[in-house]
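Handout, section 4.2: multi-component inputs.
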Amino acid sequence: MPDKFVHEILPCGIEFGILPLPHRHVVSLHIRFLAGCCNEPEEQLGLARIVEDALDKGTESFTGPQLSDAFDAIGASRSGGAGRETTTFSCTVLPEHLQRAIELHAEFLRRPVFPGEAIRVSLELAGQELSALEDDAQGLLDKHLSRQAYGPLLGRHPLGERSTIARIDRESVAAHWRTHFNCGRMLVTIAGPVEPRRTKDLLTQYFEGFGASDREGRTAFPVEFSPRSVHWQKELEQQHIGICWPGVALTAPDFSTQQIMIGILSGGMSGRLFTEVREKRGLVYWVSAWQETPRGAGMIFMGASTTPERCDETYQTLLREVDRLGDDLTQDELERARTGILASFETRGLTTRSRCAELLGDLFYFGRPVPLEEKEAKIQAVTIDHVKRYLREHSRERLCVVTLGPRPLAGMLEDAKSAAMIGVNKT
Amino acid sequence: MTNRNGPYTQHTLENGLHIVIEQMPDVRSAAAGFLVRAGARDETPELAGVSHFLEHMIFKGTAKRPWRQITIDFDAMGSLYNAFTSEDRTMFYGWVREADIARQIELLADMMRPTLPKEEFETEKKVILEEIAMAKDSLEHLTFDFLQEKVFAGHPLEWPILGYESTVGAMTRDQMHEYFATKYAPDNMYLIVTGKVDPGEVIGLAEKYCGQWIPARRPAVRTPAVVQTGVDVLQVSRFRQQVVALTFPSVGGSDTLAETSAAAATILGGENSRFFWEIVQKGIAPRAGAHHLEYTDCGVMILYGSCEPENAEALVDALRNEANRVCTQRVAAHEVDRVKNKRRTSLAVEGEAPYYRLTQLVDDLEYHGSPRTVDQMLAAVEAVSVDSVYEYFQRFPINTEGHLTSVGPRQWPANGNG
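Output:
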């Protein structure tokens, strides 16, 4: 039976979606504010994450520990995070605790006091997290690759830089919250055994009057793709390789084709990268392809890590696999990639938490709930010709290549044909 | 002989393969897994890493399928599949749409009788050596391997699951086959199936695909580890942060205090825990936690954190201070209630996904010999109390010397064994 979504904009400005799932034993609540790292002042990078971290450390009625205790009293499973474009909070509870969960979210989102000591600690820890990032080879590679892929705005890292964190204080935290946390920038989704009208009333009851109701934050941020090859020197056992090139946005007609293409490359162990790089040649333990989709844009990534003496062969094999995809793609491969996506809708995609997160994504990207049947139909419609055309139109001609490890790749420059430069940096 | 209890059906084939099925009528998928009761602690020192290497080789070909066909068949179902090896078990699983569960069981069963092709053995060895290299680039992984080596010195738990370059490099296909023949016998394995399934059909499939396997009748002999005390330091200058860990003896997963020990770890080092407020939120370290590491017959409580090297003393002092507090003063009732409340939610979440239930059943079978119903699990959680936590810390105090592990750029403590 098709899902019965509810999608409305409340008078206070909140855009919300509800997915009633009558027989479930939990309910999920996701709240997204349309403000993230891209909304930070340039001199205060890292601010969005500090705000997210500090929000629940004290309100007009609760201390930080009291608030955490209140969430624990209803057994809430929570998470939160600031990303490039948004800041998101999610929570899963037993159905009888939904009202309290909404009430407690309203408490810390609407009435934070940002205690000075909590801000001091958050800033101190942010500096330590930057040190920890230096010990995380993959995380560090992602940071450098994102910067090249998206440019100085969309490529910001949530942790910021030491120099910019040093300029953040309690007032800048409060100012960011006052400007960007309000009903007009708020998407809310709820999935589970809920009654839509009652749920809508609860949102109104607890959030009405929370800041401006004007619909803001709906504009995509610009991508500044910089094709070039850069090596970051670091003492490591392995060489870490990251490659990316522009793809299509999640809302583009070709997005389903892109999904299938990623599936063919890296959807399972029979995917091309796993088969050719790992299973046939034994070059790596980890190899993967994936996509990222900020609003209005898409980016294709490939990554692998290997010992230095094998990194050139690994790199060449990665590129060769992309290049030959348009020549010898088979119907069987396409069907496996298709099946992988469709099956995931019925396995991990069916949990209450997944459905709620999916609905949030629908509102964020499409401005409406997208029925599963519609998503399935798009995947079903992809043909080999679609994939071949996609590969022609989105070739890997313009590449960003980032390596991190003991030495640069041999011939890195030659393969990144349009690379503007090759740089070597020390991290 | 088939036993039914609530959603569970259990059946043992004549060759000893034990089948456990949990019916979940409200989902549209099912998961199947073979649990092999063998892991790194069942290896000899010269074959350190063979369990994990064998786990990889299970995907490399059978009499019926070359390796390429195994992965193609998994992906043709859209299966979410993988395998993992721990110190005391190896698990292979796939999560599929309900209509594909018979194909999934057939494929997994076929894989459990691998041919271990020699050429693939040599190629896969390179993959394992890359995995070992990757682990060395992870401060967390490096620390845990070092901790195990020192804390469990002289016991099979001391070597890493991945093994060493030397042992993996020297390993032969015949040595692996000999290990396989004793460990992957049906009387040392479980078939676990969860989700929207027909138990009768599953048992029939198991009979058909596994009934001819020959039992070994050689149960693993394991001895509990003795947890060492002392101070061990691994100085690695290329890392920026220092990881410290305090390790103390604790109960195994089968012990009646196991639920309490897990709750104690959560009170100390989980979300909204004492470590979070007294260490992280004091700015001493961005990460501090407590982990109850358990095996069937023994376990350890590990208090750990990572920090700027100059904060290492402050971090260890703070960990010890909180450890002393829980040993000398009873925890508050609301701290215990918090753990129970979160467990209720997590049980409800687990009930939505066959794969989540599969992983939970693995623990139940290893530690309790049979699956536990939701009511039994809730009863175990309810039995945790302020008094039981106090009793636990009286029996397994963590305000003693314990074992201190320190890994990072700093040679600290100076008196540690390098």
